[in-house]
Each structure stands twice: as C-alpha cells, then as structure tokens.
Design brief:
Number of helices of chain A: 8
Helix content of chain A: over 70%
Radius of gyration of chain B: 18 Å
Oligomer: heterodimer
Number of helices of chain B: 11
Radius of gyration of chain A: 21 Å
Number of strands of chain A: 0
Distance between the termini of chain A: 33 Å
Order of helices and strands of chain B: HHHHHHHHHHH
C-alpha cells in the first residue's frame, strides 16, 4: 500500500491518533506562538504608523488573520463533516466538532477587534454593515452547532447532526452574505470599507503574513488538543486509554 | 402510491388538528401578543407605529412560526410514526414535503389571514398591505421549509427549547431581509418586484432542496 494512504488509514485509529496529536500539538502551539510573536513585534514596533489612521490601524494585524480564520475554520469543519457523513470516519466527526470552539473564538476576536477599531474610526461600535452582520451570523451558527453537539446524548449522533448543519451552513452562508449586501444597498452604498490587502504598502504587509501563519499553526495545535481530548473521552474504558491513564486494564 | 400516501397524511393531520382545534389558533394569538407589545412599547401613536409596522408584522409572523416549529415532527417521533415514515414504500422526502406544507397551512396561514387586522392595529399604511401580503405568502413557506431542517435535527431531543431558535435564525435571515425589504422598498416608492421575484425563486429552490435535506437530517437524528 502507498505509504501516504497507509498513514491516513493509521491516523483513523484512535490510539494512533492520540499518539500523533500528543506529539505534534505542542510543536504547533510553539511554532504558532513564535510566529505570532514575530508578527506582533512587527505590528506594534517595526511598522510605521498609517498616514491617515495613526496607530489605531495596528489592530488590523489581529483583526484580519482572525477574520480569515473564522471563515477558513468553518470551511474546514464542513469538509471534515462531509467526510464523516459519507465515509462514517469517527475521527473526522471528532475533528469537525473540535473545529467549532476555535472558530467561534476567532469570530469573537474578529468582532471585538473590529468594534474597538470602529469606535475611533467610524465613530460607532457597531454598524449593520454586510461584513459585520455576516460575521455575527457566523458566530451564531458556531454557537448553535456547539449547542446542538452538546444537547444530543449519543456522541456519534450528535456529531453527525451538528456536522450536517455545518454543511447546510456552508451552502447558505453565501446567500446570507449576499442578502445582507442587497439589503444594505437599499439604503446607501458602503461608504467606508476596511482596506483590502492589495492597497497595503509592502512595508506594512510582512507582520500580517507572520500573523496569518501564526494563527494557522496555533489553530492546528488547538484542533489536535481538542480532538485528542474528545477522542480520549469517547474511548474511555478501552484498554489503551486505561493504560495511558496509568491503570491496569 | 405517492398521492395516496399524501392524502392519508393530510387527512390524518387535519383530523388531529380538529381534535385540538384550540391549539390551531396559538400562532395567531402569539402574533397578536407580539403586535400588542410592540405597539405599547413604541408608545402607541400612529406617527411612530406606521413606519415600522411592516417590519413588526414580518417579525410577528416569523416568531410565531418559530414557536410552532418544534411541533413539526415531535408528535410523530414520540408515537413512532416517524419510523413508519422511514419504512414506508414512498420516499421520505415526499412525506416530509407534505407534512411541511400542511404545517405551513395550519400554523402560518392563519397568521397571514390575520395580518390585515393586525396591520390596522399598527396603523400600517394601506398601500403597503398588498406587497406585505405577497411577501408573506412567498416568504413564510421558505421559513417552514428551512425550519423543517432544524426541527428534524432536534427531533431526537426531549426538549429543544432555545436551540431551535438559535439554529433556525441564521437560515431565516435572507428571507426576512428580502421579505421586509420588499415592503420597505415599496414604502420608499421603489419597485418591490425584484425582491418578490427573488423570494419566489427562493421558494422554488427550497421546495426542491429542503425536503431531501430534511429527510437526511431526520435519518441522522432518528436512526
């Protein structure tokens, strides 16, 4: 068998995944924190202040990577959920559900940093701008998914139901986003927009790259840690878990 | 075969509805309560009520539907009919579609019939009423079809409570935006046709896609 394919098959086995996650989660955390450290240093000290926004633009270096992650984690969650539903791979159910808390946290960070930036720049904490509204709805979907996962007693059923909703959510999020844009355009055009990356000077860009890499690595660590905990909880009572906990099977 | 099954299901649902005919008025009653509370909260004078009347009516109908959502499959899950649905020789999505439309006709339609009266309570400008009714008639079936997916996913739980609302609300956003948006557009003298046509398109798409999705959700939640 092809070694890569074999490795994927091995990873599906709970004890093998436990060892894998225990080994790599600390490294992902460490590398993620290092990258974020470099990025934050660049964002706070190395990069010059913006000519229009002064120093308050620096919050972008947290805001943009979090916003990116809040969407990317959702897509990844739906991807795992689809695999779990089609091929009934238990590990993918666990991984899909382990995505949700981190994704919700990233979404919350995005909303909070956006509000803090919006108060001095837009003069308001909140505006029903399409992007803000979409992000808030994404947060609600994350919370709903976690609620659904927690509310059903049978773990496998719970993961499948919540994963199914994640897939429905991915199909509907573009519609929601687009509908809010339409709704807003009834009243007025979008007068202020967050500046896109393309408008950014290269001297301001490099800490953002570090932050984006850092948040991704940190997420991998968090995903492995959470999935490992859920995996152990589901396997409670099996010989290898008892051995791991220091008992005799 | 499929027509027979649908007829049997409709007859059964209507008989059950007649046996508890007091319950059938609950959604309309809830919408009335919402409207009364909104009107009192806003001060009650026509000047402050008229601009928001259409949005409040949309919300009242939406919330009344949300309240009724939990009963969509719960009775069948509890008495075992749902297992028979899954074993039946007709496809599950067909039964789901018939049930969802029946549920819409018995919970949402009475509220919509009451909307002209509720509109008077809120000093809704008469000119807005036709667009409001059209948007409600096109929009509320979409709410029922989307809501059926959520109701199916939570059918295994003893009490779903706030979870149903939390899960359904993101799905309801586009419908509310276009439904209330159509009335708002016509109030500003703009053409409401665009939003109404989009609602109609959404209704057609969800009529096709929502029942199989709900059927899949039922199989997951109630294996």
């Amino acid at each position: 068998m092809n070694p890569v394919v074999r490795w994927f098959h091995q990873l599906g086995s709970p004890p093998y995944f436990d060892r894998f996650a225990a080994r790599w989660a600390p490294w992902a955390y460490l590398l993620g924190l290092l990258a974020m450290g470099v990025g934050l240093y660049g964002a706070l000290f190395a990069v010059p202040a913006d000519y229009q926004q002064g120093d308050s633009f620096r919050i972008l270096y947290i805001h943009v990577p979090s916003a990116w992650m809040s969407m990317a984690v959702f897509a990844l969650m739906a991807f795992y959920a689809a695999i779990a539903l089609v091929w009934r791979i238990k590990l993918c159910e666990i991984l899909a559900m382990a995505c949700a808390p981190s994704g919700a946290a990233f979404t919350l960070v995005t909303l909070a940093t956006g509000s803090i930036w919006g108060k001095p720049m837009w003069g308001t904490w909140w505006d029903w701008d399409p992007r803000l509204t979409t992000e808030l709805i994404v947060l609600l979907v994350y919370v709903g998914l976690m609620g659904l996962y927690a509310a059903i007693d049978d773990r496998r059923n719970a993961a499948r139901a919540a994963g199914f909703l994640a897939i429905v959510g991915v199909a509907l999020l573009p519609v929601i986003r687009w509908s809010v844009v339409w709704w807003n355009s009834l009243h007025q055009g979008q007068t202020i927009s967050l500046f896109g990356k393309s408008h950014m000077d290269p001297s301001m860009l490099w800490p953002l790259v570090w932050m984006i890499a850092g948040t991704k690595l940190w997420f991998v660590g968090s995903l492995l840690g959470r999935a490992r905990a859920d995996n152990l909880r589901r396997e409670t009572g099996k010989d290898w878990v008892t051995k791991l906990a220091g008992g005799t099977p | 075969m499929m027509r027979q099954a649908a007829a049997a299901l409709i007859a059964r649902d209507l008989r059950l509805l007649w046996a508890r005919r007091g319950d059938a008025l609950q959604p309309a009653l809830f919408a009335l309560l919402t409207v009364v509370l909104f009107a009192l909260g806003l001060g009650g004078d026509a000047k402050s009520l008229a601009p928001v009347a259409s949005a409040v009516l949309w919300l009242a109908v939406l919330l009344a539907g949300l309240l009724a959502l939990d009963s969509l499959f719960r009775g069948d899950a509890e008495d075992g009919s749902l297992e028979q649905w899954m074993l039946a020789p007709v496809p599950l999505w067909w039964l789901v579609l018939v049930r969802t439309l029946m549920h819409w006709a018995t919970t949402a339609l009475p509220v919509i019939v009451a909307v002209p009266l509720l509109g008077e309570l809120l000093h809704l400008p008469r000119a807005q009423l036709p667009v409001l009714m059209a948007s409600l008639l096109l929009g509320t079936p979409i709410l029922s079809l989307f809501g059926a997916v959520v109701a199916a996913l939570t059918v295994g739980m003893r009490r779903a409570g706030i979870l149903v609302a939390l899960l359904a609300l993101p799905l309801y956003v586009p419908v509310l935006v276009f439904g209330a948006g159509a009335v708002a557009a016509s109030a500003q003298g703009l053409d409401a046709d665009g939003a109404l046509l989009l609602l109609g398109a959404g209704l057609v798409i969800s009529l096709v896609l929502a029942p199989p999705t709900t059927a899949a959700a039922l199989r997951i939640a109630h294996n």
